[in-house]
């Protein structure tokens, strides 16, 4: 009798261990526990055939076996279901190396902007972060361009209303810095400016500028020229030459157009410089007395100089790019060359 029970138990344990799926599991359950023909249930039915004194012991042992079988089957079913759930989940190999991502880099214009700021910081300038949405007063009026001034026509402006606009240059750094600081002042501002220009090879309605202001006692054109020379040699190359021609800007007096020796032909004359050997690069001058006065500088000994330059224009020359639109297309084949 004991032998029967232990053989039954052993064969059940082997069958149960071999179960891998729900179907196997059902087959094993039926094999041992089915009402009709189950091995355990069948053995229990034999109870009646035993002599009366053997029945309690056999009954107890068989009930224990049935409980054991039921518990084991429950546990096995949980394990089988968990295994089936895992198989349905997508397989992720956490040890597999990741897909390499190309690291990005700064846009060439942004990099040049940072390079220019760095040159000025090394010369003791502070960099002012000024608003792109500017008041008419700072963009025009305080720079000696009152309403109806003809110079306003030259700069087609995006207006929000009569008093608010998208700045057309960074020259507002002159007024902002003088209003908030006492001389000596050395400040620059760089960033986007906006004009109603067409979008073609040489124009864009949005471009980058750097504007420079220096205000202190006794400044004159010689200081301006000296600082321009240092700056342009550092931005382009140490062999660059520079010349000033008279020029008009409402906020400076006297004003100058600044040329550099052609960087393509070293001044010998080529198609890029129209055989002149010179390329126009920026506008500069001594801060107009009226601008100084409007910004609260009333000491006659204090003078200032200022200049403004297109950063995109420098990029075009420095990198030999002949279409400004390439900088805004964001085509990686172009940008990856920098
Ligand atoms: Zn040239």
Strand content: 15-25%
Return Rg in Å: 43 Å
Architecture (CATH level 2) name of the largest domain: 2-Layer Sandwich
Number of beta-strand segments: 10
The N- to C-terminal Cα distance equals 90 Å
* Average pLDDT over all residues: 91
Q: Would you tell me the structural class of the helices and strands?
A: alpha+beta
Contiguous uncertain segments of 5+ residues: none
Helix run count: 13
Q: What are the secondary-structure elements, in order, as H or E?
A: HHHHHEEHHEEHEEHEEEHEHHH
According to CATH, the homologous superfamily of the largest domain is Bira Bifunctional Protein, Domain 2
Bound molecules: zinc ion
Describe the global form.
rod-shaped
General description of the model:
Helix content is 41%, strand content 20%. By secondary structure, the chain is an alpha+beta fold. It has two domains: 2-88; 108-335, 2-Layer Sandwich (BirA Bifunctional Protein, domain 2), CATH 3.30.930. A hairpin with a 2-residue loop joins β3 (159-161) and β4 (164-166). α1 (2-17) packs parallel to α4 (55-88) and α2 packs antiparallel against α4 (55-88). The model has no long low-confidence stretch (mean pLDDT 91). The protein binds zinc ion (ZN). Zinc ion binds next to loops.
Offer a quick outline of the entry.
With 338 residues, this protein is α+β, with helices and mostly antiparallel strands. 41% of the residues lie in helices and 20% in strands.
Give a quick set of tags describing it:
single chain; about 350 residues; alpha+beta; BirA Bifunctional Protein, domain 2; 13 helices; about 20% strand; binds zinc ion
